[in-house]
Fold these 2 entries.
Entry 1:
Amino acid sequence: MSSSLKNLSDFSHIQVGSAAELKFAIVVSQWNAKITGALLNGAYKGLLDHGAKEENIELIEVPGSYELIAGSDIALRNQELDAVIALGCVIQGETRHFDFICQAVGTELAQVGLKHSKPVIFGVLTTDNLQQAIDRAGGKHGNKGEEAAITAIQMGLIHKTH
Ligand SMILES: Nc1c(NC[C@H](O)[C@H](O)[C@H](O)CO)[nH]c(=O)[nH]c1=O
Ligand SMILES: CC(=O)[C@@H](O)COP(=O)(O)O
């Protein structure tokens, strides 16, 4: 169901589980920093609300969403993590650059996760305009950063128990 029909950040209907024993990296892009900063706040809220320890959350900042790929690989290469949360905001400009970034980031983040056998969560907004991004970074359609954190907890627990 699309975000325009509901607030996807309502998790009251699911059992998320405890993040107390999990280690995370959040890789966040600096492009559209006001948006990605709001996504980051949501991600921290989601992790801490479910018991994650602050000392178990590493933060890595990268220039743009395209660099989330390398940043996630670096995070997983250097330490034992249970999940990586990749946060970015790509907004359509005048050219097809948007298409290439979104396609690459979506495809390659999945490949990074498979390479390391660890969950890499796609918390990247890909919007037509700034307002759509604002609405999904703590606005009327919730916070995709918080959603990504909940997904990271769920997938991290699945990896630990399978
Ligand atoms: N236009 C946006 C970008 N562009 C920059 C790329 O992500 C990348 O840093 C550059 O191509 C160099 O490799 N990045 C975003 O995150 N959001 C945008 O709207
Ligand atoms: C997604 C982008 O890289 C884009 O915002 C850059 O804008 P433009 O396509 O007008 O160069």
Entry 2:
Amino acid sequence: MLELKHLGHRYPHATAPALADVSLAVPRGCVLGLLGPNGAGKTTLISHLSGALAVQSGEILIDGQTLQQVRAKTPTRIAVAPQDQAFYSMLTVAENLACFAAASRLSGARKRERIDACMRFSQLESFAGVRADRLSGGLKRRLNLAIALLPEPELMLFDEPTVGVDPQSRAFILDAIKSLAQTGAAVIYASHYMEEIEAIADRVAILDHGRVLREGSLDDLLSRSAMLLTLAADGLDVEMLSRFGTVEQGAAQWRIHLNPGSGPGPVLAALEASGIAVRHAEFGRHDLEQLFMALTHRSLRD
Ligand SMILES: Nc1ncnc2c1ncn2[C@@H]1O[C@H](COP(=O)(O)OP(=O)(O)OP(=O)(O)O)[C@@H](O)[C@H]1O
């Protein structure tokens, strides 16, 4: 079990913290989707877990031991599959795997077994003799993944591993990550892409300005999210609607994020009493994107 407790981080000379009081828990077998717009703090959080940034405040525990203790004793328990290429471009796929296997202190039969398993898992067997710089973007990410998996890590960190990847490799990478969690690893998957998070995450944390705004299972988050009422009618104004919730005026429609516990009935009754004819009304819970926008007032792709 990975636990982050009140983690905070401020870069030198920054006016605001990149992480502020972040607490999260990720059990084995779980994929935690870390969702946030640019600058939310995702990479800063992952850099703490990978050991690239030292903890300034708060703590990170793995099975009750501090991250520092775990890294000092068994650095290979944690692996990062980054967005950028993390291999030697002049070496072939097989040479890269052999080189990183040795760096992970694997040797003999165990080394050969892990190289074969990771090559198979990432479906790179037919590219074993190809120089890494000649691989397509999707295959390069698969090589990153194979290298990260060599020491059989218990905690896997993925920082936007599918950016710029073709749809086939993207689907492959997502399936592979899901199956990793099923074998008992804890996985943190940071992304801008909501559909990816919806597809693979068991739990979701929405991060913005370094803070966790919501955390829970996807069902939990959405069932606790506010009701959204979308209306099309002439004669509406903010003053009239704002007592029912937070109001947004679109080009053709008004959106009301209703106050907790309230439904559409009182709004429609009030409009009818004011003689306003509603042309169109739609009512339901936020989906993940709407929840995100209501929380952060930003689009995921801003
Ligand atoms: N090396 C640094 N020095 C100073 N400030 C930094 C540094 N790295 C990141 N920041 C700031 O810290 C905040 C969090 O950045 P971070 O890169 O962790 O966000 P992110 O969610 O990963 O964003 P993106 O999706 O764009 O990669 C931002 O305000 C960013 O400008």
